[in-house]
Amino acid sequence: MFGCVGADPRDTLQLGKMIESTGVSAVAVHARHVEDRPRHCASSDGVRILSEALSIPVIYNGDVFSHSDIARLRGVSGAASVMIARGAMWNPSIFRSAAQGGFAPLYEVAQRFVTLAEQYRLHWSDVKYTLQQLFKEQPVSSSDSYTSLLHSDSWTDREPVLQALQRDPRTRLAYHPPIIERFDCATWHSLLLQHGYSSSVPSTVRDNPIDSVANASTAHLAHTMAGQTELA
Ligand SMILES: Cc1cc2nc3c(=O)[nH]c(=O)nc-3n(C[C@H](O)[C@H](O)[C@H](O)COP(=O)(O)O)c2cc1C
Known about the structure:
3 strands; TIM Barrel; about 50% helix; binds flavin mononucleotide; disordered N terminus; 3-stranded parallel beta sheet
């Protein structure tokens, strides 16, 4: 609704006030233009403008991928709270603080999810999709146990799939949210500058920025992203 690149703060404010005047109790804001998706980060500035101006609670949404992001993005946006979509879909244990153990091991999350999914009578195809999201870009996704998940097609495959995952030590490795979607704006802009792009991003890069920059220097990009992972 509110864009980060080139957005006029007055438009953001006007729309926010209009929404508030309808009598809603709170507003959740994802500050990103359609054309910014999926690889430009959401803006905390657009949310801050509203947090400071509205009297109803403003909820920040966008790119919350770890428990520590919750306090950080809530702080910089001045929001009353945060809403999490992909981060919670990839690994619902994002809500556990470091003191509570942080991200839970993947197998533990998978097993709990499958138990609840069965209780709530989800279709296996939805269970399979969600497990694939959980294992996205994790070492286990290149293993035979993951292949058994991919080949499963009904609840009758549940036990062999869970057993294969349980036996696989890769499901006990520390969890890192998928890298490609965790790219933050600061890193993105500094990479563009390093690779000779000005701050006005060429349309070919805007269409598919990571791929374009990766073509310029895959090794450098991988190195930078690996560094980010270590910091997580
Ligand atoms: C599986 C999924 C379903 C979504 N469905 C909707 C939807 O129905 N309506 C909507 O406005 N946004 C929808 N979204 C967008 C999210 O509400 C959210 O704004 C967006 O994913 C950015 O937040 P995130 O960075 O925490 O993922 C969906 C996102 C995901 C991942």
